[in-house]
Design a protein that fits this description.
- The protein is built from five helices and eight strands.
- The C terminus is likely disordered.
- A five-stranded antiparallel beta sheet has the order 7-6-5-4-8. A three-stranded mixed beta sheet has the order 1-2-3.
- Helix 1 packs across helix 2.
- The protein is an alpha+beta fold.
Length: 194
């Protein structure tokens, strides 16, 4: 997917802050309409593949001043910092390498061999191509440049392979009623099959 000037500017502001905290940037996504936009910064601790609540809060605080000073977004927006979750989006080459053998769904744009969507097990990353084995056993070669959105499918196998989430502070969130929705699914990126 091509990067806009705003995408590049946001990356220039956010990526160094994430890296300085020893975290890995998974995705920056701006969604919504003027006056009701959300800037989602998804990151992970390379040691765990997740963020704790304390890490999310610290990253959010660390991003406030650089974003305020640069003021890259013309309208008002809410900043949302989150961990990728179990059924995480696949946005980087390392994601495809780390999750070989697991099921994924993706949206392709432009289409590849007449396909707008693909679903199957990740077989390998070969250069800039993702190899995906479909349910019929057919191996698809999909250029990463054509993958508009992709995420892992929540399966028993994925749950078994995922480290337990750190639940520190979860009881405090439930008691205060401040739990946030983090299903990694955005209305613009419906990855269900055609």
């Amino acid at each position: 997917m091509t990067q806009t000037d705003l995408d590049a500017r946001l990356d220039d502001i956010i990526a160094p802050v994430v890296a300085a905290m020893g975290l890995a940037l998974v995705r920056i996504q701006l969604s919504g309409q003027n006056g009701a936009m959300t800037l989602q910064v998804m990151a992970e601790d390379p040691a765990t593949g997740q963020l704790t609540l304390d890490q999310c809060a610290a990253l959010s605080r660390a991003l406030d001043l650089p974003l305020e000073e640069a003021d890259p977004i013309a309208s008002e927006y809410a900043l949302e910092v989150s961990s990728p979750g179990i059924d995480r989006p696949l946005t980087r080459a390392i994601d495809w390498q780390n999750w070989v053998g697991h099921e994924a769904r993706m949206k392709l744009e432009p289409m590849v061999d007449g396909r707008a969507r693909a679903h199957g097990d990740i077989t390998a990353l070969d250069g800039d191509d993702v190899l995906l084995t479909g349910k019929s056993g057919q191996v698809l070669r999909l250029p990463m440049a054509n993958i508009r959105a992709a995420k892992l499918v929540l399966t028993e196998r994925l749950i078994a392979a995922t480290r337990p989430l750190d639940t520190t502070g979860a009881d405090e969130i439930i008691e205060s009623g401040a739990a946030a929705d983090n299903d990694n699914e955005t209305p613009d990126h419906d990855l269900s099959e055609d």
